[in-house]
Amino acid sequence: xxxxxxxxxxxxxxxxxxxxxxxxxxxxxxxxxxxxxxxxxxxxxxxxxxxxxxxxxxxxxxxxxxxxxxxxxxxxxxxxxxxxxxxxxxxxxxxxxxxxxxxxxxxxxxxxxxxxxxxxxxxxxxxxxxxxxxxxxxxxxxxxxxxxxxxxxxxxxxxxxxxxxxxxxxxxxxxxxxxxxxxxxxxxxxxxxxxxxxxxxxxxxxxxxxxxxxxxxxxxxxxxxxxxxxxxxxxxxxxxxxxxxxxxxxxxxxxxxxxxxxxxxxxxxxxxxxxxxxxxxxxxxxxxxxxxxxxxxxxxxxxxxxxxxx
Length: 310
Fold this sequence. Notes:
The protein is mainly beta. It has five helices and 25 strands.
């Protein structure tokens, strides 16, 4: 990445899927503009071949094992390529898995041509700021941890170690659970393991289909809508391991199977006996409501106190 630090606007295209505007030179030498989804729970970058057939790619890497977005601890082989693109005048040269089937519908004149995953954000030390709706290079560590205006902070490094994605700890009835902070999901999701923990089932028929895939429905989940509540622990007193608890409420889809979430984001390198189920997905609307700042440089999620009105 160039010496100029990234600081760009997050665009939500008619849904809660956060995107950034990118520019690239097509195969005819013309500059084009498009959108890429910022997906905190997709480890690798993806290019949608059917949406960006004109982007210049080079150095085909052949088949490479790429982590699935949602399907769990299985791995899929994708053709990998390299491509250059720019965000706000800053040039990036990144590897992408070439997805031949997926279509991500756009509600704007610009097509959605791919996904920028968690690996991209860690590599470039970025922060995804739901308060300002911006993606930028994260601040120096001392600025964050010494800031008296921080309201909530929690580590997410254990999630990166397990699977390269942000995981947070939540509490329900004094019991801890893992939850994924997934900007690529436009709703919260709970597994059947949480069916008895939902506060209320409010409908019997709901679904989410964030990405259309002609050959598979691995990103399509359906089930009843539920209201859930839980507590988020804050580790603001970092050295002493203590802090406040924040009460949260959200609307979620109760999926009909445990498999989507309980086997998700394990790793072939880890001892599976040490891993825990992941029964909750915290989607982009929840994170926007909470005004989370997901800091991939320092591996924390935090929020800032609202300034007092004069």
